[in-house]
Amino acid sequence: MKTTAAVLRDPAGAYAIEEVDLGEPRDDEVLVRVVASGLCHTDVVPRSTGLSPFPIVTGHEGAGVVEAVGASVEGVAVGDHVVLSFDSCGTCPACAAGVPAHCETMLFRNLVGRRLDGTTAMTDGSGDDVSNRWFGQSSFATHCLATARNVVVVDPGLPLERLGPLGCGVQTGAGSVVISLAVQPGESLVVLGAGAVGLSAVMAGVVAGATTIVAVDLHAHRLDLARELGATHVVDASEADVAAEVLAVTGVGAHAVLDTTGVPDVMRAALAAARPGGRVGFVGVQTGDLVLDPLALVGKVVHGILEGGADPQDLIPRMIGWWQDGRFPFDRLIETFPLAEINEAEEASLSGRVVKPVLLTGA
Length: 363
Ligand SMILES: [Zn+2]
Ligand SMILES: [Zn+2]
Fold this sequence. Notes:
This protein is of the alpha/beta class. It has two domains: 2-167 and 329-360, Alpha-Beta Complex (Quinone Oxidoreductase, Chain A, domain 1), CATH 3.90.180.10; 173-306, Rossmann fold (3-Layer(aba) Sandwich), CATH 3.40.50.720. 26% of the residues lie in helices and 26% in strands. The strands form three sheets. Strands 3, 4, 5, 8, 9, 16 and 17 form a seven-stranded mixed β-sheet that branches. A six-stranded parallel β-sheet has the order 12-11-10-13-14-15, with helices on both faces. β16, α11 and β17 form a beta-alpha-beta unit. α5 (169-180) packs parallel to α6. The model has no long low-confidence stretch (mean pLDDT 96). One zinc ion binds next to loops.
């Protein structure tokens, strides 16, 4: 079928809106008419890893309506409203244990852009292959192919144009807090970096019952938003020593600390901000070697976190419930753009002006 997609042809280039051809779903695939797709920082990763065959369609926070299902698909039907998330195999030890974020095939299914067998179902106007399985979806398009495992069926009364970010960025922040770091009522939580992941972590800290929530960032407008979303304290890292500020607030350091920046200096501050026995989570794409002081890890538990450690089939419905209860206003992070303005949306995300751009694919 003909569909419209934002195609990235060159790692350093801009997206181009093109008419492309999308094949029929295979037996295990579903065809989704995409209503909207959030733009996540990971969408810029193909520009630098060399893992993805170009040209590629990215986008991995899609939401839409199922238009066709393959012969072996169960649990998803034509007409279902779905949120798209990362893909997983369903059978490896991690998937069997309910932690598909640690699936053995996580890298290949999500960060390459092809099916596991290397094929793609999309061709451009010249008949050349276009990679169409980024995070098992490639949702910067009016239609995409996914699998039953990476679509989560939701109530058709919900606003699909807002739900896409639940599939990655919001899930990553919330899952890090309620699953990986397992923050408990009355505990203290520090979140370094107040972007989409960090602010989602702040909101999840409120849901988890954390009574001290410290947000750290370099931008005053993000710290203001963090306060509105539930941070009890904010620290401008350009002006203050983060670990010293956290110790001043918590006495002996925080129970749980989440770094969303991947910046080695900030990761070291995250370790220093945790109390003895505290838990530290790292979710950012690390930007350099992490050198640790001899005593930096003593008595602390460090989690390297992917997708919040979440199972989307479990966490996405829970987050929707929190949102419906008014406890998790993730949609306050969103600013919408038409798909044709995807380059402006990417720039707004990278500059920090917009926390969570969402592309309206308008099909
Ligand atoms: Zn698996
Ligand atoms: Zn993402």
